Amino acid sequence: MDRLLADSGRLLLLGNEAIARGLFEAGVGLAATYPGTPSSEVGKVLEDLAAPAGMYFEYSVNEKVALEVAGAAAISGVRSFVFMKHVGMNVASDALMTLACTGVRAGMVVMTADDPSCHSSQSEQDNRYYAKLGLLPMLEPSSPAEARDMVLEGYRLSELLSVPVILRTTTRVNHARGAVDLRKAPRPVVKGVFEKDPQRFVTVPANARTLRIEQLKRMEHALKLSESSALNYILGTNSRVGVIASGVAFTYAREWLKDVDILKLGFTYPVPEEKIRKFLAGKERVVILEELEPYLEDEVRRIAQQHHVNVEVLGKRTGHLPRAFEYSPDLILSLKDVLPVRPERPAAAQPKTPLPPRPPVLCAGCPHRATYYAAKKAVGPRGAIYSTDIGCYTLGVQPPMQCADLTLCMGSSVGAAGGFAQVTDQKVIAFIGDSTFFHAGIPPLINAVYNDHRFVLVILDNRTTAMTGHQPNPGVGREHGGIETPSIPLEPIVRACGVKNVRTVDPYDLGATIEAMKEAVASDELSVIIAEHPCPLLKRKEGSLKRSSYAIDQDKCVRCYTCVSRLSCPAISKDGKDVRIDVTMCIGCGVCAQVCPKDAIEVVK
User: Is the pLDDT at 320 greater than 70, yes or no?
Assistant: First the structure.
């Protein structure tokens, strides 16, 4: 990874790696994030390389805090960067909308990594509308190389306009690979001076009204910059058929279409109205290619109507393109009735036999599986409402655990549990991870104490932020960038919130965990169980996993299939009538041995 600090050369980079390289070349002094796929790899690069590059980097407790940290840096004259996945922008938006009014003094870029097709997310969401909502300039790359270039352009625009600039990526840009030519990176400025200006930065209503007028003036300047930007350009030969495209959709159009004019938009807010008007003039038909919402399509339709341009505009509004899910080359080829596609580029061959679905499951040895098993044993046949959260443990929805009935957003399991407890007489169990608890679980827990909501909260503490790539969180402390801080233990925080009934258990000790669950379920007060055991994949990656090997004694096994049907560890499977453990997958947690009613699962010496 040190190659990303080279002064020159050409590298094949992941889109997120190219973005991180752009930060070095832009002389960014501070970067902050809360990890979320598809933006996570940017953080991994910065965790390793920010300090050698002279940059300060932190994993903040949530996206709002990350944006506030980065915003204060930019106001103090230090270039800053904050990045998150698309739903993280919802968390950060409160601070972002005000920062859009006050503006900044040094360059600030805000990256939102949208996730069309929900590859790793609870929802699809088109964050381009945040640019319109906040009147913030926005750039959209279509390749890794362009992503690096747009980072640099983002800081130039930010400092011209004195406002944050949004960099909107999508999964296929973040996770594509492309050649990137390196430029020499300067040593960043990491210390600034904050000069007081209460009329600008203290947004009482009288000041906010003045700031609003300034904000609108900045957008007039931004529109002129968009009209002249090299990021908005035309490819083609004066065809009567045109395409307007942004993001990865442009890449597909360039590769799979022929004999069309393409207006490529990279500076997409504010849209270059005059450039679009001129492009529409003389065209019989224009197709709008963009992922998710008809953001550009609606702008094009407005411009055509406002300027009396008679052109057929095709896209999502006409049913020619879908609003749901990401685009692909096959989708472009499906437009052959309205666009000339390259006949020599046939659609990718599909397998004759469809591949079986492979839903994600909790890994072999995941401590969450044992916690869920204990919860089900404690509840028994009467059942419970399971309010769950965002993380690996969302996979508790899968059979046989089925310990997930509602998932909304980070921290919602706790708040929703309070609502369930208030309006039903059912037993309520909420699950939340350690990182998610620090992110958004503390305020709803305080709310539950304050309003006497009675339920069981289980904090699944696997000592990392696992689903997004094993990033640290306050519960494990910080050890990167030359900064070392101690871990912040969960139990004292829970008690400080006012919870009296708190117990910490190791889920690998199944008996103790079941006992704790039963006591909590039987209690008539708010109870919190902290199920603490490190993620085995993290321990394996660190080289500190202490493995035992387990096998099933076929003479003792009575083929009750309890281990398969109730625990469902992926390392255990049926082989005909027998049950066997795949030693290549088993990490030796021993939970299955505790579940087996006949003691047929034993350690292999």
Answer: yes
